[in-house]
Amino acid sequence: MFSLADVMALKAILEIFILWFIIYSIFLFLKGTKAVYLLRGLVIIAISFFVFQKANLYVLSWLLTKFFAFFLILIAIIFQPELRAGLIRLGKRHIFYIEPKQEEIKKVIKAIVSAVGVMSKKRIGALIALKKEIGLRDYIQSGVILNAEITPELIQNIFSPLTPLHDGGVIIDGTNIVAAGCLFPLTDNPDLERALGMRHRAAVGLSEASDAMVIVTSEERGSVSLAINGQLTRNLSPSDLQTILNGQLGKE
Fold first, then answer.
1. How many CB atoms lie within 10 A of CB 69?
2. C-alpha dihedral over 12, 18, 24, 26, to 10 degrees?
3. pLDDT band for position 28 (50/70/90)?
4. Are 74 and 121 found together in one domain?
5. Residue 158, exposed/middle/buried by CB under 10 A (0-12, 13-18, 19+)?
6. Which one of 7, 159, 232, 243 is at 20 to 30 Å from 125 when CA atoms are compared?
7. What is the pLDDT confidence band of residue 1, given thresholds at 50, 70 and 90?
8. pLDDT reported for residue 234
9. Which helix (H) or strand (E) segment is 126 a member of?
10. CA 168/CA 158 separation, integer angstroms
């Protein structure tokens, strides 16, 4: 039989575990969104409330309590897109996820950069999405399932003009090309240049709807761009692209 002390100890351990899980989930919720700045505001409010309580400033404590409820409503209105993105990341995150080995990641990055470099020189338009934690099932189902090993030749063949799958996007998950000819959502960001084509807008749109990184090669100029979290970085050299991908996907 467990003694009262044992039961209390188990309850304390359980409470610590639940508290850790809640804090961990909050950090996952805020990761990769502008809502991370909300944490700073909430901490400031909590510290201010504690100081007012200790200093017996009851009027300020009462006002801060009322303001806190209004502040939560204001957060939900102003940061609605960021909060939605955080909830998507939290809900679709794989808890027991086995990452590919570092050697495999480097091999994949090398194959992608090699293919993108060739397509850039030949001015072949391409749209390549690299899945991270958020699932892309809906977009995968819009294309043709391949589940093929990544090689520079296969990527180039997919996007070669007049081939059936060259107009859509490719989705890469780990070390495989999962699907090709996929349809990505278009961004409605008014700050993007009007001269940008459908591929660039699709790249930004998918990076807004998920945490995927999306590579674009321009058919008109041969330039290489990369969309991450709704931000588009343009005119990348192959070495620039490789450096960014190593930083985002590699462990080193």
1. 9
2. -120
3. low
4. no
5. buried
6. 243
7. low
8. 92
9. strand 126-130
10. 9
Q: Distance between CA atoms of 101 and 94, rounded to whole angstroms?
A: 17
Q: What is the DSSP letter of 195?
A: T
Does the model's pTM come out above 0.70?
Answer: no
Domain end position, chosen among 92, 110, 135:
92
Q: In 10 A of CB 72, how many CB atoms?
A: 11
**Which residues span the domain enclosing 32?**
4-92
Sheet holding 213-217, edge to edge: 144-149, 176-182, 169-173, 126-130, 213-217, 224-228, 231-233
Does one domain contain both 134 and 152? yes
List pLDDT tens digits, range 153-210: 999 999 998 888 888 999 999 889 999 999 999 998 888 888 788 999 999 999 998 8
149 φ, ψ (degrees, to nearest 5)? -65, 140
Please name the amino acid found at residue 231: Q
